[in-house]
Amino acid sequence: MPMIGTGTELLVHREFGYDRDEDFLEAGALFLGTRVDAGETLVVISAADRFAALAERVPWPLQCLDAREWFDTPARTLSALVGLGREKWWPAGGVRVLAEPVWDGRSPAEIREWKRYEALINVVFAGTPTRMLCAYDRRTVSSGVLDAARRTHQGEHYTDPVRFSAECDRAPLAAPADPIASRGFRRGDLAALRDFTGREAAGLGLTRTFPLVLAVNEVATNIIKHGSGVGSLWVWSDGEQVVCDLIDHEFLLDDPFLGFVPPDPSRTGDAGMWAVRKLCDFVEIRTGSTGTLFRLRVRL
Fold first, then answer.
1. 67 contacts 103 by C-beta, under 8 angstroms
2. Strand ranges inside the chain, DSSP E
3. Element (H, E) at 149
4. pLDDT tens digits for 114-147?
5. pTM of the prediction?
6. Which domains does the chain have, with CATH numbers?
7. Closest-CA residue to 182 (of 144, 157, 216)
8. How many CB atoms neighbour CB 176 within 10 A?
9. Taking Cα atoms as reference points, which of 76, 92, 97, 88 lies closest to residue 32?
10. C-alpha span between 38 and 35 (Å, rounded)
């Protein structure tokens, strides 16, 4: 049975595995049904067919969110949680969240980024009145996901998020599929780079190119302003996504959570990579001896 926060600590982030639907309901009802602090909001993010059964067992109003819709991409989900926390949950007295992420139907790269998402919860929500309990169905979830869950949630096997994120980045990124379109860029080239990106993405079948163009423009701007000043762009498709690789062969990043931590509302300059991660379906970054690669993915 998972440990339940007492209400005196900031950020409780626990996990539990279950083998029967009844076990999920019992643990969820215990977590949500214990004494609610004044103003505390109770949230369930799970399969929709479990809402009614949980509501019957919990003597408090529940906010219910369909996991299939909620767990869209890690960055968008983090952004939505932060937005609700800042605007509604935390000012009212805090939030208690029972969540069951969606793992089936994900590619290996997507699973890796959702594992990272669980580690990032510990960074993004540190110091907030948030209690989160994440459920894992041991009948369907892989052993790799279960092992990661033990390391990304508070407990005996908890791993520092910086270390866990660095381990995620050890996975190599596959080389671009042929054919690819490419061009270099430097200061003064952004307008032409935007036109090139939009044209190539549309040619690959992307009907709504504007978000990707904005994201490419932002990353290229960062390379010009904060990197070596010179970069290259590759545009290609893997059959399911349009992919843009932006490469700076000299610049090395030192921020393990670039674009994942919410920007300070008082500093608009912090918002660039946060926006990039929301504009794209997935963003992967690799930095090392050969420079830095930003890989932006948008689903076809």
1. no
2. 12-18, 41-46, 63-66, 95-99, 130-137, 181-186, 230-237, 241-248, 282-288, 291-299
3. helix 143-152
4. 999 999 999 999 999 999 999 999 999 999 999 9
5. 0.90
6. 12-168 (3.40.50.300), 181-299 (3.30.565.10)
7. 216
8. 16
9. 97
10. 9
